[in-house]
Write a structure and sequence with these properties.
Layout: H1 2-14, E1 45-52, E2 55-62, H2 63-69, H3 73-80
């Protein structure tokens, strides 16, 4: 039992968010508001990937901006980026 707990704690340390350079305190690319998280740590919003100069960049959109702009969210972010 102790071996399983040790293995799980090592796995948790390895999978920490900082190891993957993911910051969950993101701001919306359209309105600039901080994107909230669910109780599980997931963002209440979405990630939009836009290719610029052969490089893919990630932009975040809050739930409200996604509702407001609908299918045009990617175009709105591309205008601002």
């Amino acid at each position: 039992m102790d071996g399983e707990i040790l293995a799980l704690s090592i796995l948790v340390k390895f999978l920490k968010i900082e190891n993957f350079n993911i910051s969950m305190a993101e701001k919306c690319a359209i309105c600039g508001a901080k994107i909230e998280e669910t109780f599980l740590g997931k963002l209440k919003g979405g990630v939009v990937k836009i290719v610029k100069d052969k490089k893919t960049e990630r932009f975040y959109a809050c739930d409200e901006c996604q509702k407001k702009h609908g299918d045009k969210t990617k175009e709105e972010i591309a205008k601002l980026a």
